[in-house]
Amino acid sequence: MASFEDILGGNLAAAAAFGVVALVLPKVAPNLPLPVRSALTGGVNLFLEAEGEAEGGIIDRLAETVLQNVLQNLSAPAPEDERHRAARAAVEDFAHAARRRARRYARNERDRSARYSRHMAALRHKLKRAQAHPGSAHAAVLSDMVAALDQRPFKPDQESSHGTA
């Protein structure tokens, strides 16, 4: 099944134009037959639903990638403090990307905060799942990372300070 990004070729401008046309056309041409108006309204609803699902899938893939990077860094043949620092840097990079994505795609400050929170919640969920995995050799470090994420407020203009957490 083709994803939303595949359908529009990843072009958000085309997606926005599609949405605007679907919303404006019934207002501009109120004499459209009811089936056409219904089809346009249905199309807009599907578009908005697909956008939300696509964002959720992207966030989930980003969080999974970060989890794999964290686990790989914690298992690397290096001194313990260096491994922990590299794992925290992967989380900081994710937080920076989450802020950047929230600023880029949000409609307003409230939406920006919600988008950032969805990113961080996805990563928190992945870290907790890995922490709870039987035989997790890194449960304590993952627990510390989850606790640090729980204390991280959304600051839209805050830039990541790589290597510190």
Layout of secondary structure:
Elements: H1 4-8, H2 12-28, H3 34-74, H4 80-105, H5 109-132, H6 139-150
Helix pairs in contact: 2-3, 3-4, 3-5, 4-5, 5-6
First-to-last CA distance: 40 Å
Number of DSSP-assigned strands: 0
Number of domains: 1
Please summarize the sheet with the most strands.
none
Mean pLDDT: 79
SSE topology string:
HHHHHH
Helix content: over 70%
Question: Could you name the ranges where pLDDT drops below 50 across 5 or more consecutive residues?
Answer: 1-10, 159-165
The helix count comes to 6
Query: Strand-residue fraction?
Result: under 5%
Structural class from helices and strands? mainly alpha
Estimated radius of gyration: 21 Å
Give the overall silhouette.
elongated
Tell me what the structure shows.
- With 165 residues, the protein is mainly alpha-helical.
- It has one domain (4-150).
- It contains 6 helices and no strands.
- Helix 2 packs antiparallel against helix 3, helix 3 packs antiparallel against helix 4 and helix 5 runs antiparallel to helix 6 (139-150).
- The chain is elongated.
